[in-house]
Specification:
alpha/beta, 5-stranded mixed sheet, globular, single chain, Glutaredoxin, 5 strands
């Protein structure tokens, strides 16, 4: 399963009202570190299909949500659970670091 596209319009439905935890990758086309973390985000989307929704939000196209959550640096990866942000990772990090942040929020 590939990450889905998160927009200002679908954010509430797809992220805040989601049944499962959601990882949102805030990124932009021109961002070098975003390109580094993108394949890791795609791997996580496949490996955790059914346990975790994974979305990508282009902050240049969808500035409202990024401003609402104070996203100042990209890539920023935020974990949402029960309609609230519960964790975040800023910058390109190793897959293990990302999984360590996500794991406590997954339903078993």
């Amino acid at each position: 399963m590939k990450p889905f596209e998160v927009t200002d319009q679908n954010f509430e439905t797809e992220v805040l009202n989601a049944e499962t935890p959601v990882l949102v990758d805030f990124w932009a086309v021109w961002c070098g570190p975003c390109k580094i973390v993108a394949p890791v985000v795609e791997e996580i989307a496949k490996e955790y299909n059914g346990k975790l929704k994974v979305g990508k939000m282009d902050v240049d196209v969808n500035p409202e949500v990024a401003m609402r959550f104070g996203i100042r640096s990209i890539p920023t990866l935020m974990v949402f659970k029960g309609g609230k942000p519960v964790d975040q990772i800023i910058g390109a990090v190793a897959k293990k670091n990302l999984l360590d942040k996500i794991a406590p929020h997954l339903s078993t």
